[in-house]
Amino acid sequence: MKKTLLFTGVGGGGTNNLIESFRQCRLPWEDYTLIGTNLAAEVLAKSPLEENYLLPVATDAQYEPALRKLIEQRKVDLVIPNNDREVGTISEIRDRLGCRVFLPDVQAIATAQDKHLFYECMTKANLPMAQSRALETLRDIPRVMKDIGGEKFWIRPRRGSGSRGATWIRNPEQAEWWIRLWCDLRGYSVEDFQISEFLPGRDYAFQSVWKDGRMVVGKLVERLEYFFGANRLSGMSSTPAIARTLRDEAALEMIFRAVKALPGEPHGNFNFDLKGRADGTMCVTECNIGRFCMITPIFDRTGKHSTVEMYVRSAFGEDVQLDEPLDIEEDMYLLRELDTLPTIISGQKLRTLSTRRI
Fold first, then answer.
1. H/E element holding 134?
2. In the prediction, which pLDDT does 30 show?
3. Chain CA centroid to CA 326, Å
4. What is the pLDDT of residues 110-135, one digit of tens each?
5. Phi, psi angles (nearest 5°) of residue 196
6. What is the dihedral angle through the alpha carbons of 247, 299, 333, 283, rounded to the nearest 10 degrees?
7. Which 3 state secondary structure label does DSSP give 178?
8. Are 2 and 43 in contact (CB under 8 A)?
9. Which of 53, 67, 99, 317 has the fewest CB atoms within 10 Å, i.e. the most exposed one?
10. What are residue 179's phi and psi, to 5 degrees?
11. What pTM did the predictor assign?
């Protein structure tokens, strides 16, 4: 009997990449019915699925009854939320949905989705972190920057993904201008922001699936070049145009400590970003919890195992035991550009292409 999977956020790049990964993995995907949802018709129009539905925004009071109605009518077996807002909401209503949900502990999600709470949690566990301070008023800015020290600082909202509202600045005046712009033009408040130590070093992303406290599979990549980085004030983004797989034992050990430091038993997706100081020390910067990364193709199409396959098998109760959960095929590259499909290529092949000059 076919199982019905509901993917949220279809039509967006992250979920479309996830669906393509699902179709390429070793699961017999013809045994599954895939349906999708989004809150915007113009995004839903880009869905690769045949069956799609509009839902209210996840923070709306009508979201839960609409989602429950869809789950009941389509006999959904598993909901796969793939953005922070829906991960947070579905986490809180999971026991009322009437289908499977494979998500971390409610408190772990709440902690990871607030970057300042996450900072406090990791600091308490003695993990290397970029020094950070939450803001209450604009008057706090000079004191906060003096406490942190340094010539450059990173400023961003406490919640959200994709480096939204983030940039580096040099002085309190620039920090105040930046915050005022986002408050005046985008409806933010000063309390939404935090200021952190600026980290100029290497940039890692880790995607992993856990079940009942045990890691099922995990993979690590380094961001080498940022998507539209030249068009951003900061020159950086959480989304790479070029990334490569690697194995860094010290960074991996730090990630495992970070997972265990979060509330509850690790269960579901735990994805971490790490950034380096000038001396090479890597710091945990955030945890994108309960969902898949935008760049999931490099995690699903390298190594022996697909993370989405391990996720679905684990969600349906299978006790997946891999010989090597750290499934890292080193020196594989992800290449991305606007309006093109992501390309996965080996470093050897990429270097061969770079020598073919006339």
1. strand 132-134
2. 86
3. 18
4. 999 998 899 999 999 999 998 888 89
5. -135, 165
6. -50
7. helix
8. no
9. 317
10. -65, -40
11. 0.90
The pLDDT score that the predictor gives to residue 339 is: 75
Strands (E), 15-98: 32-38, 52-54, 78-80
Q: What is the pLDDT of residues 144-168, one digit of tens each?
A: 999 999 899 999 888 876 677 889 9
Nearest C-alpha neighbor of 219 from the set 194, 245, 193, 242: 245
DSSP type of residue 129: B
Q: What are the Cα distances from residue 104, in Å, to 28, 265, 271?
A: 26, 8, 12
Residues of the chain predicted below pLDDT 50: none
| Residue 263, CA distances (Å) to 121, 122, 259, 328 in order | 9, 11, 9, 27
The whole-number pLDDT of residue 262 equals: 98
Quote the CA–CA distance of 203 and 222 in Å, as a whole number.
Answer: 6
pLDDT at 44: 93
Q: pLDDT value at position 338? A: 78
- What does the block give as tokens for 214? 């045990």
Taken in order of first residue, the domains within the chain and their CATH numbers are 3-101 (3.40.50.20), 131-197 (3.30.1490.20), 203-354 (3.30.470.20)
Q: Among all chains, which residue has been given the structure tokens 């996965």?
A: 344
Query: Alpha-carbon distance 352 to 341, whole Å?
Result: 21
Residue 9: alpha-carbon gap to chain centroid: 13
Q: Supply the pLDDT for residue 153.
A: 95
Sheet containing strand 153-157, edge to edge, reads 132-134, 193-197, 153-157, 167-169
Helix (H, G, I), strand (E, B) or coil at 350: helix
Beta carbons of 267 and 315 less than 8 angstroms apart:
no
